[in-house]
Amino acid sequence: MSHFGRAGPPDIRDTYSLLVLNITFRTTADDLFPLFDKYGKVVDVFIPRDRRSGDSRGFAFVRYKYADEAQKAVEKLDGRVVDGREIMVQFAKYGPNAERIHKGKIMEPLEKIKGRSRSRSPRPRDYRHQSRSRSGSPGYRKERGRAKDERRSRSGSYGSASPARRSPSPGRSPSPRRTPPSRGRSPAGNSNKEGSPIPRSVSPRGRVADSRTPSPRNSDAEVSHELHFYNCLDPDVGG
DNA sequence: GTTGAGCGTT
Q: Which nucleotide's C1' sits nearest to the alpha carbon of A19?
């Protein structure tokens, strides 16, 4: 994995986690490590990937040894262009185990700090409006573009009074037939399109004989093979 | 071959 040869989190007892967003899908931990390591001591860099495909999800986690360096890296690397894309570095808000994190430092669960009834404000007063107002505001231009689109939409409307109607194909039903409750693995892959793939009260031989088969022997072998295939593919059906 | 809001692994 993207670790340094260790499985799982090395040690988060005294490490600060930074969340890096807006990174390209081609950016790897090895590419971020030297970048973040230059600003401080990076303990580990982890990039969550998809279990199915294995591609990066577009964000990475960088763990620093000291909060000072982490904070510095956040202010320095936040907004840096990597691989042609601007990345966003910020302290992790949640932990790997769903634990609360303050400034990248893992804190005790709410149950523990629950007893702390001391000057506790119902809402955080650290709220700031510095979230989308960074170098290059895509939202700003987007808003303008959207406004234009809206105006245009109003002028050159479809003509009919059915804006809510969104039918991709009125003549064609997207899902006329719902998947049957049966465990249909591949309805189009198997040769049998009927319901029961393996009727226990029927002889495959008879069916084959009934069908036009120039070489019954070959058919028999094929049928046998098919049956075996079914057994292998869906042994559940058998019993 | 693609995409773009967000919070993590043995």
A: B7
Tell me the residue ranges of DSSP E strands in chain A.
16-21, 42-46, 60-64, 81-82, 85-86, 88-91, 101-102, 105-106
β partners of residue A88: A21
Q: Provide the CA A168 to C1' B6 distance, Å, integer.
A: 29
Rounded Cα–Cα distance for residues A46 and A144 (Å)? 37
Place of tokens 């809510």: A164
What does residue A30 show for φ and ψ, rounded to 5 degrees? -65, -25
Task: Give the span between the Cα atoms of A96 and A198, in whole angstroms.
Answer: 47
In angstroms, how far is CA A102 from the centroid of its own chain? 25
A33 close to A47: Cβ distance less than 8 angstroms: no
Decide if A61 contacts A10 (C-beta within 8 A).
no
- Residues touching nucleic chain B (CB < 7 Å): A 1, 3, 7-9, 12, 17, 19, 21-25, 44, 46, 48, 55, 57-59, 61, 63, 85, 90, 92-96, 98, 101
The per-residue DSSP string of A89-151 comes to EEE-SB-TTS-BEETTEE---HHHHTT--SS--SS-S---S-SS-SSS-HHHHHHHHHHHHHH
d(CA A85, CA A104): 24
Q: pLDDT digit string (tens) for A194-238?
A: 433 434 333 343 334 443 334 344 434 333 333 343 343 344 444
pTM of the model: 0.50
